[in-house]
From TrEMBL:
Keywords: Disulfide bond, Glycosidase, Hydrolase, Signal. Transmembrane segments: none annotated. GO terms for molecular function: alpha-galactosidase activity; carbohydrate binding. Residues 3-125 form the CBM6 domain. Belongs to the glycosyl hydrolase 27 family. Coiled coil: none annotated. The chain holds residues 397 to 522 of 522 of the full protein. This is Alpha-galactosidase. One of its GO terms (biological process) is carbohydrate metabolic process.
Length: 126
């Protein structure tokens, strides 16, 4: 099984908003991170876990890469969140991790001026 943490309960860097204007999301909305390098979305999640699956949409033609950090340490750089074809078309990107039992901080930080994709949730499993 897995545990879902909605973007509605995430922390966003300055300029990020929780929106609900593109249908198909889980829960009551999604995180629209600011369009800037360094823009982030951060969740508190519980381990143990071996995978993080991020629900997202990217209605542009270009991937929206992020660095993924756990407890302040970058565990994956420039992870692409590819175009999904429309802001209402949702997909997932999965990142393997090694989370011990207990609480962890997971942050996605945009590495381009476009900011992150619209982020819906993270499913924590394994
Ligand atoms: C559009 C879209 C937003 C999205 C933004 C972006 O404005 O409606 O949901 O976040 O593009 O490019 O990041």
């Amino acid at each position: 099984g897995s545990t879902r943490y909605e973007a509605e309960s995430a922390s966003l860097s300055t300029g990020g908003t929780i929106d609900a204007n593109h249908a198909g999301f889980s829960g009551t909305g999604f995180a629209n991170g600011a369009n800037a390098v360094g823009s982030y979305v951060e969740w508190q999640v519980n381990g143990p876990a071996s995978a993080l699956a991020f629900g997202y949409a990217n209605g542009t033609a270009a991937a929206r890469p992020v660095d993924i950090s756990v407890d302040g340490t970058v565990v994956a750089t420039g992870v692409p969140f590819p175009a999904t074809g429309a802001w209402t078309t949702w997909s997932t990107v999965t990142q393997p991790v090694n989370l011990a039992a207990g609480t962890h901080t997971v942050r996605l930080t945009a590495t381009t001026a476009d900011g992150p994709a619209n982020l819906d949730y993270v499913d924590v499993s394994g």
